[in-house]
Design goal:
The chain has 227 residues and is mostly helical. 70% of the residues lie in helices and 4% in strands.
Length: 227
């Protein structure tokens, strides 16, 4: 069918999209064939563009709302996705700030023995309650001395705490800092992570551009369906 051919997809894929409610239901001819119109074409263009910018789950949520005429719900989903992109950008900025400080002026090495929560709190100039709050947020994960029942912070834990302290002073939220810590740990330290920042920013830029393109197609869908 022409609708599938325009996008290089199968006729079954179009039927699946109709079944899933991301394009309107097609009228059936007396012989049982589906009759697709420019309304369906506009909906399919919008959906596929939304997938590129927002992912399958959010694109489906947006288009199902648009198809049933609930523009407010569709726009709320769009807004939520844009807000997530902004949070991702802020997290990237936080990582870059952290890497910049580490490479320009490394912090003094912590002592060889593990630090207690009181020792680390004194080192950073914060309270033990703050360190426990960071632990609950997923920023820190110290070992436990089972015999004494106390937290023990090794060199990596001290590094993470110093990074967290830096980012908190910069005004970053705990959830952003927790994401930064996961990135640093996954990259096995700040060096490999620094090398990946350019690619990470490119991916965000590509996603943002795709969202702009999708917005144009989504705006064209109500125009195609009429007032």
């Amino acid at each position: 069918m022409d609708l599938a051919r325009e996008h290089g997809i199968s006729s079954q894929a179009v039927r699946n999209y109709e079944r899933d409610g991301v394009i309107p239901a097609a009228r059936r001819t007396p012989s049982g064939y589906r009759a697709y119109t420019e309304v369906h074409a506009a909906a399919l263009r919008a959906y596929l563009a939304l997938v590129a910018g927002h992912g399958y789950a959010t694109a489906g949520e947006i288009m199902r709302a648009a198809v049933r005429g609930d523009l407010d719900a569709a726009l709320r989903a769009v807004d939520s996705s844009h807000a997530q992109l902004l949070r991702d950008r802020e997290t990237l900025d936080a990582v870059e700030a952290t890497i910049g400080v580490l490479t320009a002026a490394p912090t003094p090495s912590p002592p060889g023995r593990p630090l207690t929560v009181g020792d680390l709190a004194h080192r950073l100039g914060v309270t033990p309650a703050t360190l426990r709050k960071w632990e609950r947020a997923g920023i820190l994960s110290p070992a436990r001395d089972r015999a004494a029942g106390q937290r023990l912070y090794g060199p990596d834990d001290v590094r993470d705490a110093e990074l967290a302290h830096l980012l908190r002073r910069g005004g970053y939220l705990l959830e952003h800092i927790a994401t930064v810590m996961r990135q640093v740990r996954a990259a096995d330290g700040p060096g490999p992570l620094a090398a990946s920042l350019h690619t990470w920013r490119q991916r965000l830029a590509t996603r943002g551009h795709a969202m702009l393109v999708a917005a144009g197609h989504l705006a064209g869908y109500p125009a195609a369906t009429g007032p």
